[in-house]
Amino acid sequence: MFSHMIPRASRPLLRSANNTFRASPSTLYLVDKVQSRRSYATETEEKDLVIIGGGVAGYVAAIKAGQEGLKVACIEKRGSLGGTCLNVGCIPSKSLLNNSHLYHQILHDTKNRGIEVGDVKLNLKQMMKAKETSVNGLTKGIEFLFKKNNVEYIKGTGAFADEHTVQVNLTEGGETSVRGKNILIATGSEATPFPGLTIDEKKVITSTGAIALETVPKKMVVIGGGIIGLEMASVWSRLGAEVTVVEFLGQIGGPGMDAEISKNIQKTLGKQGIKFKLNTKVMEGDDSGSDVKIKVEAAKGGKEETLDADVVLVAIGRRPYTAGLGLENIGLETDNRGRIVIDQEYRTKIPHIRVIGDVTFGPMLAHKAEEEAVAAIEFITKNYGHVNYGAIPSVMYTHPEVAWVGQNEAELKEAGVKYKVGSFPFSANSRAKTNLDSDGMVKFLADAETDRILGIHIVGPNAGEMIAEGVLALEYGASSEDVARTSHAHPTLAEAFKEAAMATHGKAIHY
Ligand SMILES: Cc1cc2nc3c(=O)[nH]c(=O)nc-3n(C[C@H](O)[C@H](O)[C@H](O)COP(=O)(O)OP(=O)(O)OC[C@H]3O[C@@H](n4cnc5c(N)ncnc54)[C@H](O)[C@@H]3O)c2cc1C
C-alpha cells in the first residue's frame, strides 16, 4: 500500500561543507528557501509549520521541526500534550496492565517461588493514582521538550479558516488565528461507537472509561476481541471481574495476529479466567436498567443468548477524528472510512497541507505515527522521507505478551508465497523455565527459496521487547540463517528467538 516510499539505498545524499549529510542540489534549494523566507520581517507572524493536534504524531513532528530550525506552532485542545497515547491510551493502559499483573501474581504465583505474603488487598484508587503519576510525568515532559526545541504550544481547538490560516478557539477563552506556510493535520482517532448503546463511560464504556473505573465490575462484557479489548479484559479480570469477550471473527487479536499464535494466547488467557465467545455477533444492547443486557447470536445465524453485565466495554475499533476541523472550508474530503486522503509524501490535494497518524491510512499505532512525523518533516525540509510500512511491529501487552512483525501464515498463503516455518517453545528456554514463566513460542516464517525472513510471531514473556530484534532483521532484509548465526547472551529469553531462527534454517539445539 505504501510502496511509494523512497528506499533507504536510493536516498539522494550529499556531504556538505560542514561534513553533515544533506539532500541533492534541488533539495538543498528547498531547505535554503524555507530558511531564507523566515528572515523576511513582514512574514514574522507566519509560521513555517502549524500542526493541528498534539498527540504522538503532532508532538513528534513539532519537536523534529524545531530541531530542523523551522518556526513551528502546535495546537492541542485536550489541555495536555501526548494525545490518546499518553493520556488515555498506551501509557495508562500499560500502567494498569503492569500493576494488575503484579497484584495477580502476588495473589496467585508467589508460594511456589518461596515467597509467603500476608493479606493482599487491592487499593484501586492508589492504582489509578500511580497511573496518573506516570501520565502526568510524561505529558509534562513533552511540554519541556517543546520549550527546549522552540515549539509554540497553543492550547485550543483549531479549524481551517482558509488554506493557510487556522482559527483557534482558545481553551482559556477567546480566539486567535495562526498562519502557516505548511500545515500538518494530526488530529488522531476516537473509539467507534456501537449502534444502540449509549456511551456514558460508567456502565457502557470505551477504553477511556476502562482505564478509569472506580470499582471493579462484577461482570464485564467486552465487545470486540482485538488488542485493546483483550488488554482491558486482562486488567479487569486480574482485578476480580468475571469477563466475557464477544468476538465476531473466529480468532482473537484481530486479523493481523497469526492464527496459531492467537489460539495459543487464547488458551492461556482462558486459563487466567477470561471467557470467549468467538464467531459471535452482538445483535443489540439494552442499557436502560441498572445493568446492561447484550443480545448475541452465532455470526452465521442461529442460537440467541442474552448476556448480563454491570459494565460493557465497546472495543470494536477506532475511527479517524476530524470533527470541527473545518475541512469543508478548504475543500478537503475524507474517504468512506473517514480517513483524510494523502499521497506518498503525506500531502493532501493542497500540497502544503499534510496528514499523519491515526487520522489517515495505515495501522493505528503510536510508533507508526512517530515514524510518519519524522518522515513528514523530512519531506518538508529535505524533500525525502522513509517509513517502511512492512516492518512496523504490533504488540499486545497481555501476560504473556504477543508481538509480531511482517506477514502471518494466512497472508502468505493468500499471496501464494512459498514459505518455511521454524518455531521454538519457551518451555525449552532456560531463562523462561528459571523464571517459571514459560508459556508461548517464537515462530519464524521465511521464504522457502531465499530464506529471507517474511514474518516473526511471538507469544511469550517480554515478546514486546524481543520483537525489536525481529523488526531490525526485517528492516535489513536478514535471512533466518543470519539470525541463527548471531550470538545471543545466555541465559536470556532472546535465546528462544535465535533457536526459532535455527529451527527455520536447520535445526534448533534445545528442542
Ligand atoms: C486504550 C488504548 C491503548 C493503546 N495502546 C497502544 C499501544 O500500546 N501501542 C501503540 O502503538 N498504540 C496504542 N494505542 C494507539 C495510539 O494511542 C494511537 O495510535 C496514537 O495515539 C495515534 O497518535 P495521533 O497523534 O495520530 O493521534 P492522537 O494520539 O489521538 O492525538 C490527536 C490529538 O489531536 C487533538 N485534536 C483533535 N482535533 C483537534 C483540533 N481540531 N484542534 C486541536 N487539537 C485537536 C486531540 O485532542 C488529540 O490529543 C492505544 C490506543 C488506545 C485507545
TrEMBL record:
A Pfam family reported for this protein in Swiss-Prot or TrEMBL: Pyr_redox_dim
Cofactor(s) listed in the protein's UniProt record: FAD
An annotated GO BP: 2-oxoglutarate metabolic process
Binding site for NAD(+): 224-231, 247, 317
Cystine crosslinks: 85-90
UniProt xrefs under Gene3D superfamilies: 3.30.390.30, FAD/NAD(P)-binding domain
Domain Pyridine nucleotide-disulphide oxidoreductase dimerisation: 392-501
Domain FAD/NAD(P)-binding: 47-373
Textual note on the cofactor: Binds 1 FAD per subunit.
Gene Ontology CC: glycine cleavage complex; mitochondrial nucleoid; oxoglutarate dehydrogenase complex; pyruvate dehydrogenase complex
UniProt-listed Enzyme Commission number(s): 1.8.1.4
Organism superkingdom: Eukaryota
UniProt: FAD binding residues: 94, 158, 187-189, 358, 364-367
GO MF: dihydrolipoyl dehydrogenase (NADH) activity; flavin adenine dinucleotide binding; glycine dehydrogenase (decarboxylating) activity; oxoglutarate dehydrogenase (succinyl-transferring) activity
Active-site residues annotated for this sequence: 490 (proton acceptor)
Catalytic activity: N(6)-[(R)-dihydrolipoyl]-L-lysyl-[protein] + NAD(+) = N(6)-[(R)-lipoyl]-L-lysyl-[protein] + NADH + H(+)
Alphabetical keyword list: Disulfide bond, FAD, Flavoprotein, NAD, Nucleotide-binding, Oxidoreductase, Redox-active center
Tagged with keyword NAD: yes
EC class (word): oxidoreductase
Misc remark: The active site is a redox-active disulfide bond.
UniProt record similarity statement: Belongs to the class-I pyridine nucleotide-disulfide oxidoreductase family.
Name of the protein this chain belongs to: Dihydrolipoyl dehydrogenase
Organism: Aureobasidium melanogenum (strain CBS 110374)
